[in-house]
Specification:
The chain contains 14 helices and 12 strands. The termini are far apart. α1 links the parallel β1 and β2. By secondary structure, it is of the alpha/beta class. The mean pLDDT is 94.
């Protein structure tokens, strides 16, 4: 059996994010100094689109069903009846079963590298990856100040149930995100061996019970100790909300500053909608209304800074 690569880079995407993936690939061509292998999975219907429009870039394209076929416990009909982000959580979390690498860096389509990186940024020692572990204070503070008001409640809702299932006591709520995620196949295998299989459930059913795949990973990491924990903070600056981006711009935190402490930036696609590929399925009045709301949010943000 061939030895597995210590780490590969992986992005789970689809047609709407094609422009974002192209931006990601351009940043990889500039900064992937170790030439780590890049894999991108997309739905079967999007294979030709990605092949045709991204043919000049170096990556391996995968039909996402090839990932799902590695685990017959996943009910694909049930999976594809769920919303897209649930589908992607499951697909990303099952990528390890392709047996391509010991570890993988999961890049969302809206990730962009801003500085050179190498294998040593992700592997602590002996093919053991760093583990992203923190308490989410950056996003919690930002949303406490500028909203949305339910962000803290949502943060706890996505994490406390899994913490309880894994029988971890104490008041501390850990955050094991955000993209890019740094995952070991051994941690996912341990979750399957010691929790999913004994309870006769699939990862899909686990995620449907509490939809935070990176929390399932992180709490499993602590519970089953499949690998030693070498902690790191978030690898990328993550702009979950546009007001976080506005705040950094106002304070002068641009790429030349951010690259001292971050490998890249995530411009969340939920607000950076102008990077969507293809025609919008929203009506003109709906798009105009969204633009007006965005301008009002920007005005409110500026007033709050006064």
């Amino acid at each position: 059996m061939n030895q597995l690569a210590p780490l590969v880079l992986y992005c789970c995407s689809y047609s709407k994010d094609l422009k974002r993936v192209e931006r990601l690939l351009h940043s990889l061509e500039r900064h992937n100094i170790d030439k780590l292998d890049v894999y991108i999975s997309v739905p079967e219907k999007d294979i030709s689109l990605f092949k045709d429009l991204l043919s000049s870039h170096r990556f391996t394209l995968i039909n996402e069903k090839d990932i799902l076929h590695t685990n017959p416990k996943i009910n694909q009909d049930k999976l594809y009846s769920q919303r897209g982000w649930i589908q992607q959580q499951v697909i990303k979390s099952e990528f390890w079963r392709l047996n391509l690498s010991e570890n993988y860096l999961v890049l969302d389509s809206d990730c962009v590298f801003i500085k050179d990186f190498s294998l040593s940024d992700f592997i602590a020692k002996d093919q053991i990856p760093y583990s992203i572990v923190h308490e989410g204070r950056e996003v919690l503070q930002a949303t406490q100040r500028f909203g949305p008001n339910n962000a803290r409640q949502g943060f706890l809702k996505d994490r406390q149930p899994i913490k309880k299932i894994m029988q971890r006591s104490g008041p501390v709520i850990y955050d094991f995100g955000y993209a890019p995620f740094l995952w070991s196949r051994k941690v996912w295998a341990a979750l399957d061996q010691y929790h999913l299989s004994p309870n006769n459930i699939s990862l899909l059913e686990a995620i449907l019970s509490c939809d935070s795949e990176f929390t399932w990973y992180g709490e499993s990491l602590i519970k089953f100790q499949a690998i030693p924990i070498y902690p790191r903070e978030q690898l990328f600056k993550h702009y979950h909300y546009e007001h976080q981006f506005w705040q950094d711009q106002a304070m002068g935190y641009k790429e030349d500053i951010l690259k001292y402490d971050y490998l890249g930036i995530v411009y969340q696609s939920n607000w950076q909608t102008w990077e969507d590929f293809g025609a919008s399925n929203k009506s003109m009045p709906s798009r105009v209304l969204r633009s007006i709301k965005r301008l009002l949010k920007l005005l409110r943000f500026k007033l709050q800074l006064m």
